[in-house]
């Protein structure tokens, strides 16, 4: 579904990605893991067209999408839940959800306001609140709901549970698990490897702007030296 | 307190206050006539016209976060769209309005297409630069009076439909225009289009990443705003029966921004309150002292520092306190 090859991205003169490559197939849950500053978010931004890569190819749904602006990537079916949530503070919960809703991917059973509210009951209670008045967990759910309302083929979560209380984190993981069972393809960035291993099919470990290891959950969890070397603090 | 079944009372507070102000404005002409203060009808007519201009600016500044520092150019374009045809003995009001709206929209499309590629301070500076270009452009048009301006010998002619020479009729034309413009703004900002524009204000990059080419949406809002302001300009030209480049000067654009901020940005009726307060305070202070600018400036600084959300915010808080007290 998504294939990224030889991505090189610069911030001004400093290079952040050195031949980044990854692949997500339909129905898969794939993770990007690694320490801070290794290029996980840059990868996502490059794929989304927010930060344009200097070279490399991005293929989505069989089409070459390299160099496309972010709105075109979103219209093609990439739904991003950004780091730090970034809900629209001057819109209400309902407005945040409906403002960008669309079904450009032609999904048969598209997400609606009702189905989002069934999925996230706490959002329903706060539907008329301004989004900046929500708790961190609620904002994260709103950001996920907002992305789902665009009926994405691939949902991308950048730091899915960062800064959230452990109980809220479990809620988010449960949500992702349910989405996976519903057949949603997901690319997720996070630091809680145990939780990720439970949900995800495959993992990419990112170090200094490139993939240094990839494999399935079982292999990842079996190799303590691996997690210690690339993920330990 | 028992629950109130009547739906009027369940309307949001800001709407009730706004409608009350508009109804009061509708009663202004008979009251002014009874008090024999014809001068104040002029002040109020001017206030209505500038409210339309301020409402158009608020659409992009308040709701869209685009601080246009050249909005007076639209007023000038609208006024010249009355003055120049009149110079050639063309007095059809319908043509004047059409020209004013179309020229302002075209100017907005061209300048907006360029300006909206920039952000923040750069956007402010470039809109101001375009405004000044129009200013000097019309100064150099000797045929139409240049620096000295152009006297409009006859107001727009709407046949038997509207008599623009009747001051009271003209006042009501402006009032109805303002009501329609406020309604349009209200509908726009609560539509999906408006949500995208508002969302682009708080986080343009995010709006893009959710599948919206924000540039086109912002440009559309900019053009709508310019067209509305052009219409206000046509009214202003009729009102003053005189148009000069001075009407497009950047200080005028600054005044418009101030009216919007004073009244409360991103509110429907805020621009009306802002213009009302601005003109009334200006009239009163200038009657007291010739150095009224000094007091006025201080007053404005205090409002910005201490009155959160401008007059609209102040009114809303004031009325909500009263309600709790009951």
Automatic annotation (TrEMBL), chain A:
Pfam families assigned to the protein according to its UniProt record, in alphabetical order: ABC_tran
One GO MF term: ATP binding
InterPro entries, A to Z: AAA+_ATPase, ABC_transporter-like_ATP-bd, ABC_transporter-like_CS, BCAA_Transport_ATP-bd_LivF, P-loop_NTPase
Matching CDD domains: ABC_TM1139_LivF_branched
Domain ABC transporter: 2-233
Family annotation (PROSITE patterns): ABC_TRANSPORTER_1, ABC_TRANSPORTER_2
Matches recorded under Gene3D superfamilies: P-loop containing nucleotide triphosphate hydrolases
One BP term from GO: L-amino acid transport
Keyword Protease listed: no
Assigned keywords, A-Z: Amino-acid transport, ATP-binding, Nucleotide-binding, Transport
Assigned protein family: Belongs to the ABC transporter superfamily.
Superkingdom: Bacteria
Name of protein: ABC transporter ATP-binding protein
Organism: Hwanghaeella grinnelliae
């Amino acid at each position: 579904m998504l294939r990224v090859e030889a991505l090189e991205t610069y911030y001004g003169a400093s290079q952040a990605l050195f031949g980044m490559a990854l692949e997500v197939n339909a129905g898969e849950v794939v993770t990007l893991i690694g320490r801070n500053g290794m290029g996980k978010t840059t990868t996502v931004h490059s794929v989304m067209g927010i930060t344009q890569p200097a070279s490399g190819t991005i293929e989505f749904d069989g089409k070459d999408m390299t160099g496309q602006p972010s709105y075109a990537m979103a219209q093609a079916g990439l739904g991003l839940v950004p780091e730090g949530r970034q809900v629209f503070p001057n819109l209400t919960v309902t407005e945040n959800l409906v403002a960008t809703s669309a079904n450009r991917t032609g999904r048969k059973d598209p997400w609606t306001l009702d189905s989002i509210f069934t999925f996230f009951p706490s959002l329903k209670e706060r539907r008329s609140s301004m989004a900046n008045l929500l708790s961190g967990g609620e904002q994260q759910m709103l950001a996920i709901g907002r992305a789902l309302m665009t009926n994405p083929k691939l949902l991308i979560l950048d730091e899915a549970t960062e800064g959230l209380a452990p109980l809220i984190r479990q809620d988010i993981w449960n949500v992702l698990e349910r989405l996976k069972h519903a057949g949603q393809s997901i690319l997720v960035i996070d630091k809680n490897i145990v939780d990720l291993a439970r949900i995800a099919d495959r993992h990419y470990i990112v170090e200094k702007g490139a993939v240094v290891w990839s494999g399935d959950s079982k292999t990842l969890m079996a190799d303590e030296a691996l997690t210690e070397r690339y993920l330990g603090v | 307190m028992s629950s109130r079944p009547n739906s009027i009372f369940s309307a949001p507070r800001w709407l009730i206050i706004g409608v009350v102000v508009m109804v009061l404005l509708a009663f202004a002409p008979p009251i002014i006539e009874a008090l024999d203060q014809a001068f104040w009808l002029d002040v109020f007519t001017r206030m209505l016209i500038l409210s339309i201009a301020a409402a158009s600016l608020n659409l992009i500044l308040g709701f869209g976060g685009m601080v246009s520092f050249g909005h007076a150019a639209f007023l000038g374009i609208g006024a010249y769209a009355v003055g120049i045809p009149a110079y050639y003995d063309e007095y059809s009001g319908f043509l004047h309005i059409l020209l004013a709206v179309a020229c302002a929209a075209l100017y907005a499309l061209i300048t907006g297409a360029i300006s909206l590629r920039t952000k923040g301070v750069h956007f402010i500076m470039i809109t101001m630069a375009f405004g000044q270009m129009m200013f000097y452009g019309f100064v150099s048009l000797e045929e139409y009076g240049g620096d000295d301006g152009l006297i409009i010998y006859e107001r727009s002619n709407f046949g038997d439909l509207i008599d623009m020479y009747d001051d009271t009729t003209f006042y009501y034309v402006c009032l109805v225009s303002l009501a329609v413009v406020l309604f349009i703004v209200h509908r726009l900002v609560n539509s999906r289009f408006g949500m995208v524009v508002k969302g682009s204000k708080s986080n343009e990059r995010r709006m893009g990443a959710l599948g919206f080419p924000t540039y086109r949406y912002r440009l559309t809002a900019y053009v709508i705003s310019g067209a509305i302001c052009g219409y206000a300009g046509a009214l202003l030209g009729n009102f003053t029966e005189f148009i000069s480049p001075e009407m497009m000067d950047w200080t005028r654009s600054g005044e418009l921004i101030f009216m919007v901020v004073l009244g409360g940005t991103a509110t429907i009726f805020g621009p009306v309150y802002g213009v009302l307060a601005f003109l009334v305070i200006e009239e009163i202070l200038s009657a007291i002292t010739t150095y009224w600018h000094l007091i006025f400036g201080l007053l404005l600084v205090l409002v910005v520092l201490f009155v959160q959300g401008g007059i609209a915010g102040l009114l809303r808080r004031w009325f909500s306190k009263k309600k709790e007290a009951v």
